[in-house]
Amino acid sequence: MDRAELADFLRTRREALQPEDVGLPRTRRRRTGGLRREEVAELGNMSTDYYSRIEQRRGPRPSERMLSAIARALRLSPEEYDHLFRLAGYAAPRRVAPGDRVNPGMLAVLDRMEDTPAQIFNRLGETLAQNRLSTLLLGDQTRHTGLRRALAYRWFTDPAERNLLPPEDHARHGRTITAQLLATHTRAPSDPRTAALVGELLRTSDEFATIWHAHPVIGPYCAPKHIDHPRIGALELHGQTLLDPDDSHVLTVFTAPPGTESHERLRSLSTLDDQLTASPGAMP
């Protein structure tokens, strides 16, 4: 345990937070920025004396449970959380992979998107929620079960999954999907669901295996997607993404520049009925 570094780290993170950041009121008597020690203690459900002793480089070594409480109180990022544990002399804890329960705040954002297609994915490329326009654009991607829930599995095992994309985009799209799955596997190599998906694709798809063994890596920029929609025609769309706080789910919004033909066609989606909501689509 590095008492000095631990104390300094906690102090800097405490002073970087404002009461409004953690849902506390700002009083007129507050003269300095940052949270007070008693406020951190209250948020972490511990005594002010206990927390103060840690910042003062005194007291016993905090337990892992208390460190977790302090990390939550200070709104530490996953990387800062790990750093805190190491300063206290513990190994960084293994995180449990999040389930399919979507952050309520992210769902609230999705619910308010009534004029543009949007959907929420997890890191395996499984669609957890779609709004109506996304379903009309790409088909109902939440209906799948088992391995078919993952876009990568459908892309490399079901030819119908490629119907919405022009053939000249298939190679690039397959590489992008594989690179995203590789990044997920790299972040959590022991995750059984990821390992099962990768193993099955390596066994059943030569195309996937070839791309996988080339170790594809993509940057944050994503090229426009081209879709050949059976009812509104060809579209060129951009995907804007929003990550939830723990970086496990992604909200993707599909847009087209105003004034373009794709923009006008995208607007016409809202006038369609729901006959095609079960048709296959493909969009990471």
Label the CATH architecture of the largest domain.
2-Layer Sandwich
Instruction: Indicate the overall shape.
Output: elongated
Distance between the termini: 44 Å
* Overall helicity: 40-55%
Order of helices and strands: HHHHHHEEHHHHHEEEH
Number of strands: 5
- Count the domains: 2
Number of helices: 12
**Strand portion:** 5-15%
CATH topology label of the largest domain: Beta-Lactamase
Largest sheet: 5 strands, antiparallel
Average pLDDT level: 84
- Low-confidence stretches at least 5 residues in length (pLDDT < 50)? 280-284
Main sheet: which strands, in order across?
Answer: 2-1-5-4-3
State the secondary-structure class.
Answer: alpha+beta
Walk me through what this model shows:
With 284 residues, this protein is of the alpha+beta class. It folds into 2 domains: 85 residues, 434 Repressor (Amino-terminal Domain); 119 residues, 2-Layer Sandwich (Beta-Lactamase). 41% of the residues lie in helices and 11% in strands. The protein contains 12 helices and 5 strands. It has a 5-stranded antiparallel beta sheet with strand order 2-1-5-4-3. A hairpin with a 3-residue loop joins strand 3 and strand 4. The longest helix is centred in the middle third of the chain and has 18 residues. The chain is elongated, with a radius of gyration of 24 Å.
